[in-house]
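Supplementary notes for students who missed Thursday's class. We covered one full example, reproduced here. Read the sequence, then the structure, then the short commentary at the end.
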Amino acid sequence: MKTGTRKRVTKADRSTVRRDFWPNERDAERVRSALLEHDKVVSGYESRWGIDRLPDLVGQELRERFELQCDRLNKAIRECNADDVEKLVPVSCRAYAALERAAIEAVAKELTGEAFEAAIPSGGVLCITRSDYEAVKVAKERPDAVVWSVEEVARVIDAYDAAKLMSLVKAKMPDAIFKGMTVKGGNLNDDVPF
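Structure (token representation):
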């Protein structure tokens, strides 16, 4: 799952739309109300498709138009322009509908919430999902379970292998300082080339 790279519209909470930041109380309330409606619509799409996943399922042109729309709405919010926010929120909501239609036409599938489950010997339930997106959905539906995606499991195994390798290096060279690691091809069991 990509994080930090996707264009997002500012969430409609009172800390974002602070009353002392806006020119007047009425404008602040108008923006807050419009963004709450926006959030309801977006949350519906995200519950079915995953957070920030829909833009990744469509072609570049539609994705860029969607991101441009996000930029416009965020600019209106930053500039305290309640009129523009109220005009742009319905446009942004229609943009999500367009993303969904394009994703369906591209034969993309909504999240299913499917997971493999196993009892944890010390107590609780482990759920393993096919993707990070599915893990988010399952975690919301199963707050009592420990939820991992198969992608996370792969990253943990990779990190574990790296830690084992560094332990071997430290055993042979106790004064070695670990500053990071990049594995370029080969096998972690290969001889160290020095």
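Commentary. The beta strands are 116-119, 125-129, 146-149. The longest strand covers residues 125-129. If anything here is unclear, bring it to office hours.
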